Amino acid sequence: MTLLASAANEPEPFHPPSLADFFPQVFLFAEPTIPWFEDDSPIFGINRIMLVRFIAAIALILIFVLGTRKMRLIPTRGQSLIEMGLGFVRDGIAYDLLGEKDGKRFLPLLTTIFFMVLAMNLTGVIPFLNIAGTSVIGVPLVLAIVSYLAFIYAGVKKHPGAFFRNSLAPAGVPWFLYIIVTPLEFISTFLLRPITLTLRLMMNLLVGHLMLVLFFAATHFFLFSLGGGFIALGAGTLVFGFAFTVFELLVCVLQAYVFAILTAVYIQLALAEEH
Amino acid sequence: MDNATTILAEINGNIGTVGYGLAAIGPAIGVGIVVGKTIEGVARQPELQGRLTVLMFIGIAFTEALAFIGIATFFFMV
Amino acid sequence: MLTTALRMAEEGEQPNPLLPAFYDILWSSVIFVVLLLIFWKVVLPRVQALLDERAAAIEGGIKKAEEAQAEAAAALESYNTQLAEARAEASSIKEKARADAAKIEADLKARATEDAERITAQAQQRIEQERQAAFSSLKSEVGTLALDLSEKVVGESMDDSRSAAIVDRFLADLEREGVSR
């Protein structure tokens, strides 16, 4: 890539994707800052990614609030689509893993997580938005913390006092093994779960964005900066970029599903811990 | 060959990339095994497909996490 | 990743994607809370209400169908009982008619027998009476004739008392002879 970039001293050099894409200029509310935190980080700063997130959230609110306003017994086409989405989370994730009673308790949480992640993932492939709201660590981190608090809450509520003992020192293990098992359990349950939730979502979308940018930037570079025989190569990267867009769509839905279902699994494990 | 240290090929970049490539092998095999076993299971008992698919995605999610930790190490180790 | 790393190295500034900016966390939390509240308080209750309504409608439909079925069953039952009643009535009427017929027949037979007996009795009585009448008239005539005859034969008259005695004796002889004969 460096080779290409340095070789192209013609009109436009190659623009490789960069992590700076995920940290655009704060253009609104840059003023009130926290002097002692991260080099004067603005408190209410809004940059392009925040804007994309707001658009996704507003779209979500409009779709669901307007779509469920006049619900009919015999659904219209749009209503059955909304019902299908909500029914997928309800039956496929909440009731399937948690059962009807507990599923109902955690349904608002799981529904919110699923649709929030889905909407913010999809902004990554929507033209002109072109960046996933979940590809910056804020949303994945907040949602992972919510999921973390949810399963700890579920466990403590179900087995008051015994939850931490149960999850750190599982029964049926010889006492001397606790020296190894307890730290492992602590790391896997209380450290790795939120970290993997955050990283999985964020890295999937971040890498997806980098790949898409790579393909389309390369296409642009081949077609308009190099031209000639490179046009064929540009066509190839364009096809790849298109295929990758489709793949990204799949990843968007899959990651939303995985995030919601893992939250449900963690809650289920916390509820079921019966040692 | 007058100069013994002629550079025949040059690679520049970060060795961390290679590290990530190595780190991705394990999860790749793991995901392959998970999906393959799920397909076997579905072939044996097609009526369990829904249940197995859910388990497959959970399994993939756990296995795949390692690859993403691998990517992330670049940012906090370098 | 390679290019990114290179660019970072070249430019010297490294935004670390793992370190969240404060506003990032803030706005993410705000969006999450707003969405959670909307799903929790607005969307899901509406959908739940709709599902309940739909379940009620389906249940109502089932109940209505059950009611209709029960009604139909009741109607069938009542028809059946009515039919059975009618049948029983018909058979009882038939039975009664048969009994009546038998009674009438018996009555008629009895009356006929009675009539026949009475007629027979009357006839016998009359025959007896005729016989008696014939017998007594014959008796007196035969006596007179015999007396006339014997008067003529004997040529002497006899008083009535004696003649009567003679006639009686004669007749008794006759009868005795008739009996012995």
From TrEMBL, chain A:
GO MF annotation, one: proton-transporting ATP synthase activity, rotational mechanism
Membrane-protein topology: Multi-pass membrane protein
Keywords for the protein's UniProt record, in alphabetical order: ATP synthesis, Cell membrane, CF(0), Hydrogen ion transport, Ion transport, Membrane, Transmembrane, Transmembrane helix, Transport
Membrane-traversing stretches: 45-67, 106-129, 135-154, 175-195, 201-223, 230-247, 253-272
Primary location recorded for the protein, binned into one broad class: membrane
Localisation per UniProt entry: Cell membrane; Membrane
Any Gene Ontology CC annotation: plasma membrane
InterPro entries documented for this protein: ATP_synth_F0_asu, ATP_synth_F0_asu_bact/mt, F0_ATP_A_sf
Transmembrane helix keyword on record: yes
One Pfam family from the record: ATP-synt_A
Family: Belongs to the ATPase A chain family.
Described function: Key component of the proton channel; it plays a direct role in the translocation of protons across the membrane.
Protein name: ATP synthase subunit a
Originating organism: Agrococcus baldri
Gene of this entry: atpB
TrEMBL record, chain B:
Residue(s) at site: Reversibly protonated during proton transport: 64
Keyword Transmembrane helix in record: yes
Domain of life: Bacteria
CC terms in the record's Gene Ontology section: plasma membrane; proton-transporting ATP synthase complex; proton-transporting two-sector ATPase complex, proton-transporting domain
Subcellular location: Cell membrane
Main location: membrane
Membrane topology (UniProt): Multi-pass membrane protein
Gene3D superfamilies per record: F1F0 ATP synthase subunit C
Alphabetical list of InterPro entries matching this protein: ATP_synth_csu_bac/chlpt, ATP_synth_F0_csu, ATP_synth_F0_csu_DDCD_BS, ATP_synth_F0_csu_sf, ATPase_proteolipid_c-like_dom, F/V-ATP_Csub_sf
Keywords: ATP synthesis, Cell membrane, CF(0), Hydrogen ion transport, Ion transport, Lipid-binding, Membrane, Transmembrane, Transmembrane helix, Transport
Segments traversing the membrane: 20-40, 52-77
Biological function: Key component of the F(0) channel; it plays a direct role in translocation across the membrane. A homomeric c-ring of between 10-14 subunits forms the central stalk rotor element with the F(1) delta and epsilon subunits. F(1)F(0) ATP synthase produces ATP from ADP in the presence of a proton or sodium gradient. F-type ATPases consist of two structural domains, F(1) containing the extramembraneous catalytic core and F(0) containing the membrane proton channel, linked together by a central stalk and a peripheral stalk. During catalysis, ATP synthesis in the catalytic domain of F(1) is coupled via a rotary mechanism of the central stalk subunits to proton translocation.
Family statement: Belongs to the ATPase C chain family.
Protein name: ATP synthase subunit c
UniProt lineage: Bacteria, Bacillati, Actinomycetota, Actinomycetes, Micrococcales
From TrEMBL, chain C:
Subcellular location: Cell membrane
Pfam families, per database record: ATP-synt_B
Keywords, alphabetical: ATP synthesis, Cell membrane, CF(0), Coiled coil, Hydrogen ion transport, Ion transport, Membrane, Transmembrane, Transmembrane helix, Transport
GO CC term (a single one): plasma membrane
Keyword Transcription regulation in annotation: no
Parts of the chain that traverse the membrane: 25-44
MF-aspect GO terms: proton-transporting ATP synthase activity, rotational mechanism; proton-transporting ATPase activity, rotational mechanism
Coiled coil: 62-133
InterPro entries: ATP_synth_B-like_membr_sf, ATP_synth_b/b'su_bac/chlpt, ATP_synth_F0_bsu_bac, ATP_synthase_B_chain
Membrane topology recorded in Swiss-Prot or TrEMBL: Single-pass membrane protein
Family: Belongs to the ATPase B chain family.
Subunit details: F-type ATPases have 2 components, F(1) - the catalytic core - and F(0) - the membrane proton channel. F(1) has five subunits: alpha(3), beta(3), gamma(1), delta(1), epsilon(1). F(0) has three main subunits: a(1), b(2) and c(10-14). The alpha and beta chains form an alternating ring which encloses part of the gamma chain. F(1) is attached to F(0) by a central stalk formed by the gamma and epsilon chains, while a peripheral stalk is formed by the delta and b chains.
Protein's job: Component of the F(0) channel, it forms part of the peripheral stalk, linking F(1) to F(0).
Name of protein: ATP synthase subunit b
Protein species of origin: Agrococcus baldri
